[in-house]
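Data card: per-record layout.
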Amino acid sequence: MRRTTAVPRGWWDLRAETAAGKPAEQDAVAPRAEADQLRLAPAAGAVVDQACGMVMVLVPCHRGPARNLLVDVSRQCNTDVPDVASALVATWEGEPFPVLMQRALRHALRRFYAEDRGCDSRPTGETSGSRPAM
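The structure for this 134-residue chain is written out next.
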């Protein structure tokens, strides 16, 4: 015995549902956005890996510190790591590195080299726990 089910006309039509006051279109937007993010994730990972490689060559460091530098720059600029990585990789093609990211990278490199040497990253004349001399 075979069962058949009749589907009302316009069942899958999002415009018909939203016209009736149902938020079906809003429910469909979230999975689409998530699918787009999942589709772009491998590309973003490749850009981050490429930027890490550039930092590893330019700074002479391992992968962990190179990624930490990118994360530090992204936090200072309030952007995502893939955005910082793509801006850094774009410099290879002749694109200018954004000024805000340049400053953030400069500060991150100062901290990196200060930690590498085992010294404090504060300016001279300022020690931990004390105020600068006036």
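Known properties of this structure: The helical segments are 14-19, 24-58, 63-77, 81-90, 99-117. Confidence is low (pLDDT under 50) at residues 128-134.

See the next section for split statistics.
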